[in-house]
Amino acid sequence: DMRLLGFGLRDQASADLAAKLRPWMIGALVTSIVTGVLMFLSEAIKCYYSPPFWYKMTLLVAATVFAFTVRNRVARADPGRISPLLIKATALASLAMWFGVGFSGRWIAFY
């Protein structure tokens, strides 16, 4: 997302970076799901009745789907075919969703 916004790694094309990072994204997603299920099982009742938990789960699904569909297409597309505004909007939307996942996760502890 930061590359799509123009911060860092400017010497690499977005498509190349997206292709190189895809295995890491999948590995991180699997790790997050496994550890998340284990954490949920340790406090299932508390989490189930916690609105921040459901906000997190909703944002997590939305961010994951967005990352593997919309953001992936934008990152792999030819920069000349997509407007810079759409590229930046896609990156900002992705960052907002992932920030929401993290914020909601911390909010669970204080709810």
- The assigned structural class equals mainly alpha
Strand content: under 5%
Q: How large is the radius of gyration?
A: 16 Å
Largest sheet: none
Q: How much helical structure, as a percent, in the residues?
A: over 70%
Describe the oligomeric state of these chains in a short phrase.
Answer: single chain
Query: What is the overall pLDDT average?
Result: 91
| Coarse morphology | elongated
- How far the N terminus sits from the C terminus, by CA atoms, comes to 30 Å
H-E string: HHHHH
Give the count of helical stretches: 5
Low-confidence stretches: none
Number of strand segments: 0
Name the features.
111 residues, mainly alpha, 5 helices, elongated
Model description:
This protein has 111 residues and is mostly helical. Helix content is 82%, strand content 0%. The protein contains 5 helices and no strands. It has helices at residues 2-5, 14-42, 44-48, 51-76, 84-110. Helix 2 (14-42) runs antiparallel to helix 4 and helix 4 packs antiparallel against helix 5 (84-110). The longest helix is centred in the first third of the chain and has 29 residues, at 14-42. It is elongated and about 50 Å long.
Secondary-structure map:
Layout: H1 2-5, H2 14-42, H3 44-48, H4 51-76, H5 84-110
Helix pairs in contact: 2-4, 4-5
Task: Provide a compact summary of the structure.
This protein has 111 residues and is an all-alpha fold. The protein has helices at residues 2-5, 14-42, 44-48, 51-76, 84-110.
